[in-house]
C-alpha cells in the first residue's frame, strides 16, 4: 500500500508539536477543509447543474454576485459556525462581518476573514478559481460578541492563512507561521493528502503576472518594470514570460512553485488598486513570506499595513523576493 498522509493526520501531528495547543486552531482548519470539499464538488459539476451565471445581486464592491459565490459563502460560514472555534467571519460577499451569537461560538478564540470564491469571473469558462482565508486570534473578550477590532488586525497578527485552488487538481495550501504545506485532494478517497511538504518559492523567477490590459493606467514605475522584464528577454534564449490567468490564487500558486511576481498595482483613478487587504492580500502575503518570498504594496510590507476598514483595497507586488525588490526600486525612482 502506498503511504499517504492526510491533512487531518498532518494537522493532528503538528498540533502535538506545540505542547500548549488546545486543538481549536486545528479543528478550525479541518472545518475549512471540509467546506472546501463541498465547494469543490459544486465547482466540479458546475456545467451540469444550474449553478453557473449570476444571481442578479451585486455585492458591497458593486460586483455581480455569481451563484457559486453565494453557495461558497454560505458553505464556509455555516461550517465555521457549526465548528464552534470561531466567533465570527468577514467575507468578501458580506458588507459587515457576521458575528456568531450562540453561546458556544462566543467562546470561540478565532475569527476568519475569507474570500469564498476568488476569481469567480472565471467560473463560467471553466478556469481555475480559489478560496482564500485568514485566521486571527480575537482581541475582544472571550464569551462576548466579536467586534470590528477583531477583523482589523494587521496581517502580521495572523494565526494562520491558506488558499484552496480548484484547478486541474484541487489543492489546499496553508501556513500557521511554521512553513507552508500543500495538500492535493484525492477525489477517490475524498481526502486532502500531503503532496507539497515545506514549500519554498525561488528567490528569483522569470514570470510576471499582471493585467497589461490596464497598461496605460499603470504608474510609471510599473510600466518601467514591465519594460524591464521584456528587455531582459531581448536576444535571450530564456526570456521572461508573461502569464496572467486573472485568478489571483492560480497566478500566485504557479509563481510560488516556479518563481515569479504577481502585480495588481494602483491604476489611474484607483489609487488602491482592486484587491482587498484583509481577505485577499494579507493571507497571500503571509503564505508567500512563509515560503521565502516578499509581498509589498510597492513601498510597504503588506503585513504591516493597519486596516482601517474591512473591504479596504491595496496595490500588491508579491512573489519572488528579487523580482519584488526590482519592481519596488523602479517605483521608488518614480515616486
Ligand atoms: P474577485 O474577488 O471579484 O474575484 O476579484 C479578484 C480577482 C483576482 O483573483 C484576480 O487576480 C483579479 O481579480 C483580476 O482582475 P482583473 O480582471 O482586473 O485583471
Ligand atoms: Mg476576490
Keywords:
9 helices; binds 2,5-anhydro-1,6-di-O-phosphono-D-mannitol; Fructose-1,6-Bisphosphatase, Chain A, domain 1; binds magnesium ion; alpha+beta; D-Maltodextrin-Binding Protein, domain 2
Head-to-tail CA distance between termini: 59 Å
CATH H-tier superfamily of the largest domain = Fructose-1,6-Bisphosphatase, subunit A, domain 1
What is the mean pLDDT? Answer: 92
Describe the main β-sheet briefly. 8 strands, mixed
Bound molecules: 2,5-anhydro-1,6-di-O-phosphono-D-mannitol, magnesium ion
CATH architecture of the largest domain: 2-Layer Sandwich
Number of domains: 2
> What fraction of residues sit in β-strands?
15-25%
Q: What would CATH call the class of the largest domain?
A: Alpha Beta
Shape: globular
Nutshell version of this structure?
By secondary structure, the chain is of the alpha+beta class. It is built from 9 helices and 15 strands.
Could you explain the architecture of this structure?
With 335 residues, the protein is of the alpha+beta class. It folds into two domains: 7-196, Fructose-1,6-Bisphosphatase, Chain A, domain 1; 207-333, D-Maltodextrin-Binding Protein, domain 2. The chain contains nine helices and 15 strands. The strands form three sheets. It has an eight-stranded mixed β-sheet, sandwiched between helices. A five-stranded mixed β-sheet has the order 12-11-13-15-14, with helices on both faces. The radius of gyration is 19 Å and the shape is globular. The model has no long low-confidence stretch (mean pLDDT 92). Bound molecules: 2,5-anhydro-1,6-di-O-phosphono-D-mannitol (AHM) and magnesium ion. Residues 63, 92, 115, 118-120, 211, 246-248, 251, 274 line the site of 2,5-anhydro-1,6-di-O-phosphono-D-mannitol.
